[in-house]
């Protein structure tokens, strides 16, 4: 990998310490190339020559903190990623016609919560239904993008024609090449900022489903347990916790039991 900026182990460790202090995320030794490639973009944007200069800039400019967090925590996402989870969600909705509450804990740029909302609209037969959807993220800039609900048309065209027609408006003029989520779907989601390391969450108890996919992989096992217990205390008995494909909670089996395909059923008795 050609690296126009020098990037030493000392600088990598300084970045790791900084992101852990800000978010609790524990970057593995193997993440050095990822850190370099993502932060090198910030060096170029700020016209800085070295990582040392960037780290000084980060300390001196509070506004850079969010760019730093975004660079190191934002993952590629897409609508209906890990599609089996949405098939399972649809089945849950069909067997639970009562009012439900769903929380997406890491909404990023919005594809996941909008996929949840589309699934709810299809299962309930209406864009306005009795499912309340909450979507949070640590990054306020990502939340703004999610709330806007504007996406490149090539990303939206991967959806079925029925979903494109029902849930999106194609942009024209200056917005050509983009599509926007229809207002009814945007209004069905309550977006808010939340750091999962915070002691208190801006969420009332009584959740039926929590999507927390590919989030816990960033935390060490003791931190995973702390966060998980906080989330599970907000959930109903027998509610669903939906994890990412690379996550495993066998070491926390006293709190929830696997149902297959990284879906877990909550056991509140041991919390």
- CATH-level-4 superfamily name of the largest domain: Vaccinia Virus protein VP39
Work out the strand percent: 15-25%
- List the uncertain runs: none
**Residues in helix, %:** 40-55%
Mean pLDDT: 91
Helix/strand-derived category reads alpha/beta
Count of helix runs: 11
Number of strands: 10
Shape: globular
Q: Would you write up a description of this structure?
A:
This protein is α/β, with parallel strands linked by helices and 271 residues long. It has two domains: 9-73, Chemotaxis Receptor Methyltransferase Cher, domain 1 (Orthogonal Bundle); 84-270, 3-Layer(aba) Sandwich (Rossmann fold), CATH 3.40.50. The chain contains eleven helices and ten strands. The protein has helices at residues 9-23, 32-46, 51-60, 64-73, 84-95, 111-124, 140-148, 153-156, 161-167, 183-187, 221-232; strands at 100-104, 131-137, 150-152, 168-170, 178-181, 189-193, 207-211, 235-242, 256-260, 263-266. Strands 6-2-1-7-8-10-9 form a seven-stranded mixed sheet. The protein has a three-stranded antiparallel sheet with strand order 3-5-4. A hairpin with a 7-residue loop joins β4 (168-170) and β5. α5 runs parallel beside α6 (111-124). The protein starts with 8 loop residues before the first helix and ends in a 5-residue tail after the last strand. 32% of the residues are buried. The mean pLDDT is 91.
